[in-house]
Amino acid sequence: MNSMERKLDAYAELVVRTGVNLQSGQTLFIQSSITAADFVHRVMRFAYQAGASYVHVDWQDETGTRIWYEMAPEEELAKRPDWMVRVYNQLLDQNAAFLYVLSPFLEDMDGIAPNRLDLGSDALYAATADVTNRLMNNEASWTVMAVATKPWADKVFPEIAEDKRVERLWETLFDVLGLNQENPLTVWEKRMKALAEKAAQLNKESFRFLHYKGPGIDLAVELPVSHRWLSGRLENKQGVFFTGNLPTEELYTTPLKRGVNGFFKGTKPFTFEGNVVTDFSLTFKNGEVVEIESMDGADELRRMLQFDEGARFAGEVALVPVHSPVARSGRLFYQPLLDENASCHIALGHAYSSALAAGQELTAQEREEAGINSSGVHYDLMIGSETLFVTGERWDGTMVPIFEKGDWANTFKGEDER
């Protein structure tokens, strides 16, 4: 077995053991592109070694999806089959684990009328809203991860020889995931422990406000009284720990829907429906985005903000130091799963109720009463830089430095970070 094969196996094992943390007798549901079949088969083998009772793969065909958007009657685009929702709910009821294998930039929707895309996405949101809430409330273990694809590698490494790009992207993924180190599972256990300790320290402070300052940002974020900081190590309703994103370097919480005021200029591009927006800024008043500026993506921003009422409000704030493994790669990945772990960010759209005390049990009405946002979308926008300062304001008005020049303030650094 060559080095590439060993690392792919290590990645698959990490997904099963650290990602969804599959338990003996559990079903694993995998959603993946058919182009990632080789990797998915590796995951299946490790899942059965871990004691899986059954592994079901929901294969996605990007070409078939495009044909559907191009040719299906519009009234059919606005529908989603009931059986899809029933299957998801049944799997959740049976305590299945969910793995989402991303294959970035394979889906090509260029030339398809925006209204047809909107019909399909709106129907999918309406059909799966309850299922999405159940997953976001951690009723089951779930993990999102990515595999290298040729279109993605072309975006990330345009300057190197075309036939070397996919291999370079794989090697970069292995590096940021710690798969080039000995005992990756142990590496991740230590990483998760360090993040959990920082989350506990932030939760002990119970800040009322976060203040973001620096060139291109002046933002005040009010937090719910019952907010709590979470790391990538989550706990499902059965008390099993899992890792929602691989990789993960963030600590995050939920802001008050009406509690964001100020402005920021994005520090990294983001993608929306396949379009890359590289230059943008947003202004908030009483939580709502009231002004946008963009040299190259104003139309995309407006469409994103118009998805529903909640798309104009924030649902997450997250802290990530500028020296994280993803940041050290020096690459823009054009994929939130990676880019959000290289930068502090704020997300527009749906809020994680799990970031409130006992929030997993909140109904839709209780979410509204708690003052957190609900939406059919969740878009991470990067605001971190080496010039960013973040200060926490306690309820008595005292200020505590959290981030200084894009890194943890000394108070929040572990012994090996000082």
TrEMBL record:
| Keywords linked to the UniProt accession | Aminopeptidase, Hydrolase, Metal-binding, Metalloprotease, Protease
Which Pfam families does the protein's record reference? Peptidase_M29
Q: Which InterPro entries match?
A: M29_Exopeptidase (IPR052170), M29_N-terminal (IPR035097), Peptidase_M29 (IPR000787)
Q: Check the record and name the SUPFAM superfamilies matching this protein.
A: Thermophilic metalloprotease-like
What GO molecular function annotations does the UniProt record carry, in alphabetical order?
aminopeptidase activity; metal ion binding; metallopeptidase activity
Q: Per its Swiss-Prot or TrEMBL entry, what cofactor is needed?
A: Mg(2+); Zn(2+); Co(2+)
Among the record's GO biological process terms, what is one?
proteolysis
**What Gene3D superfamilies does this protein map onto?**
Thermophilic metalloprotease (M29)
- Does the keyword Membrane feature in the UniProt annotation? no
Taxonomically, the superkingdom here is Bacteria
| Family (UniProt) | Belongs to the peptidase M29 family.
This protein's name: Aminopeptidase
Q: What species was this sequence derived from? A: Domibacillus enclensis
